[in-house]
Nucleoside diphosphate-linked moiety X motif 6
Amino acid sequence: MAPSVFLSHLLPLVRGSLCRKAPCPSRTAVRRSQFLSVEGNRVLAGTVDRFGGVTVDLTESGLPEDISEGAFGRLLGDSLVQWRAEGKVAVWLRVPISLSRCAAAASTHGFTFHHAKHDHAVLALWLGEGESRLPGFATHQVGVAGAVLDESNGKVLVVQDRNKTKNAWKFPGGLSDPGENIGATAVREVFEETGVRSEFRSLLSIRQQHCHPGAFGMSDMYVICRLSPLTHAINFCTRECLRCEWLDLAELTRTSDTTPITSRVARLLLHGLEQGFSEIDLSMEELPAVYSGRFYQLYHRQLPPTLKS
Amino acid sequence: MAPSVFLSHLLPLVRGSLCRKAPCPSRTAVRRSQFLSVEGNRVLAGTVDRFGGVTVDLTESGLPEDISEGAFGRLLGDSLVQWRAEGKVAVWLRVPISLSRCAAAASTHGFTFHHAKHDHAVLALWLGEGESRLPGFATHQVGVAGAVLDESNGKVLVVQDRNKTKNAWKFPGGLSDPGENIGATAVREVFEETGVRSEFRSLLSIRQQHCHPGAFGMSDMYVICRLSPLTHAINFCTRECLRCEWLDLAELTRTSDTTPITSRVARLLLHGLEQGFSEIDLSMEELPAVYSGRFYQLYHRQLPPTLKS
């Protein structure tokens, strides 16, 4: 799984460069390569980054919309001769879906899919020495569950999934939407499944799973948050849920009608209810992002006032 | 960002079904559709799941390798007439890279890329009512840093990145390889960058960032772990690091030559060193996965013995 030490030494460097360049080649061009020629052949115009990677965006390359696989394959072949002669280490191809036939032509030269979204695919070919050191694409989906605990009566909001054979009590939750923060997902999913409004209090637990059947074989990061109820009336989603109740927390820690992780988090919540939530919480704080100046959310144990910045 | 309540009610249900089916249609077939016909036209063979989604794998469909975009477009068009007549809610197309021209043909019928990996792309088209309720693909990359703290002398292992303009002290780290656990990434990256062997102790902090320039515009989950050193001799990677030192933890909490998150975690570590690491740690335990019987790693605050299962 892990690359050799030697190869991996370059990884963050290559990641740092190509990652930033791949999504927006035009903005990140260091120099625009010309239609140079090798033995008089045309070469695809691309942008070159300082690490020797070439990015060709077929939406900007002026190719005829009806270019054939054969014609593009020959143009790409001539271009590869040029790029190899120039010592380029990698080539990225951004292919609009309407020109997908060019991806087939590229595959005959060794290109493979790096990723694809909506209306385009990105292919890559490593030209450097040894194993490819190109960065990968997103590997994880993020699922978030919300444990809504009413501290006034020690009851927690749980559901039973309509689509599971074993109807075990669990906390409502679901997948984060792209760009959605963990706490926002928890509050949204709890409301959508149960009709209960709540507010984020802390992060309680994280689980990582690989080869996840619910993630197209990718990995899954499952986060459980502690929430406080803002409303109590249950109006649960009958398509998703068979049952939805405010269950006594102590009962949830004892019942066998639940999942191992729900039972574990229930005991964690009980501990927090009895000894103080500072015992179990990861609190959230906002810190400035170094490169963008924006703020991001950081979760960790509460620091004593003397150690806060 | 969040879908409407009504639409999202179906999300986990559709996710639960199509996610499991998309990666391996043959294994998940409920029934194999025949080459039925509408007005005598041929229809692509696909597998149908119990939620009314059709998955067509072009590597299994017996299409001629040289089928033209036009011919595939007509076949797909006739198939869509049939599937709509049958009330199917969605169509998934698994397209090998060699038949990528079929993706262009599919796009003329409204299909878009769902994802692509290595030698194939998966396209999708929502046929049901309203906005698409198809599940998304992986949204996050996971980066892990390792804070290696020598409790005997209060020194922590830090590096300065060769490729940053501001040479700030930070903890060594990098991206998780696919299928790699958080702790394993931390130990591997620390060794690759510094030459120091270490072992995982706990999870300290999590940060989520969106539209990450280092993640092809996707999201980034950055995890910082606490590690204990097994060796102390530094042999750092000169391609990645400008400097690498065992720095006094108290000094790291005071210096301005660091990043906000490193400074914050340094203060967290100092608190742990002085008051006990149980104050700052999320410990890791293994629990059985409900559906697979495999074990996964769960991170949360340590439970008192009386509450452990």
Summary: The mean pLDDT of chain B is 85. The radius of gyration of chain B is 26 Å.
